[in-house]
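STRUCTURE:
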């Protein structure tokens, strides 16, 4: 999504994905680390408008100014099973997070909301229930995978930068998982070189497909996860939301 938005605001010019790290163009609000120009928050405060900012924060943790100014918010949800597996490999490979357990340990922690950026369903619900507000665009990772051109056009309209079918097709092509995995400006390979993420354990762009949870989660783990999902999907603030698992 970051790459899609970057291309839209740069009129589809692919050079914008090759002229500097995508991470530096999207200050990460809650990150305490530094990018090439200083702390991420400092970069956010000084960068020219229109600014593109990244966050995993729940709705209620966003700055009050984000609500009062009607900042445009794009939220991408992913089905909880693929999210869990992806997160497991990420925390295993991340040298700061440095998770030492196995997937069985991680499943138990995730469904208890004892992981970074949890509770998962609370985070999703905060944006889902505001999906009809004019400054909120809610989509899913699965939609971006299965119908990328349609989703790209929707994002462009949301940003008040409508594009043609041809432009949407081109942007979708530049932002496929495989295209981004091979682009050192967007694949976070610099985090491997500087020792933050060990790509020998899991690269940042690891699989990217829908349903790969089935290759990792056991029958017993899946029973625990299914129970947790069913309990949460019955919540009033998540009614109408459906996930694609394969």
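SEQUENCE:
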């Amino acid at each position: 999504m970051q790459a899609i938005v970057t291309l839209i605001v740069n009129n589809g010019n692919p050079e914008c994905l090759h002229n500097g790290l995508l991470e530096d163009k999207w200050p990460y609000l809650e990150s305490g680390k530094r990018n090439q120009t200083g702390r991420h928050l400092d970069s956010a405060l000084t960068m020219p408008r229109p600014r593109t900012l990244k966050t995993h924060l729940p709705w209620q943790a966003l700055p009050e100014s984000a609500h009062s100014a009607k900042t445009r918010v794009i939220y991408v949800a992913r089905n909880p099973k693929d999210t869990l597996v992806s997160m497991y490999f990420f925390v295993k490979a991340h040298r700061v997070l440095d998770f030492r357990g196995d997937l069985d340990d991680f499943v138990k922690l995730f469904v208890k909301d004892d992981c970074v950026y949890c509770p998962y369903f609370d985070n999703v619900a905060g944006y889902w229930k505001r999906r009809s507000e004019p400054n909120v665009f809610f989509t899913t990772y699965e939609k971006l995978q299965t119908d990328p051109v349609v989703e790209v056009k929707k994002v462009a309209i949301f940003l008040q930068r409508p594009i043609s079918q041809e432009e949407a097709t081109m942007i979708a092509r530049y932002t496929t998982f495989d295209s981004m995995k091979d682009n050192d400006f967007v694949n976070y390979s610099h985090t491997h070189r500087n020792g933050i993420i060990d790509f020998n354990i899991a690269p940042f762009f690891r699989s990217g497909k829908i349903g790969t949870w089935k290759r990792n989660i056991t029958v017993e783990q899946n029973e625990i996860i299914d129970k947790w999902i069913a309990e949460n999907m019955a919540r009033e603030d998540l009614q109408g939301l459906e996930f694609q698992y394969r």
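REMARK: The first strand starts at residue 34 and ends at 35.
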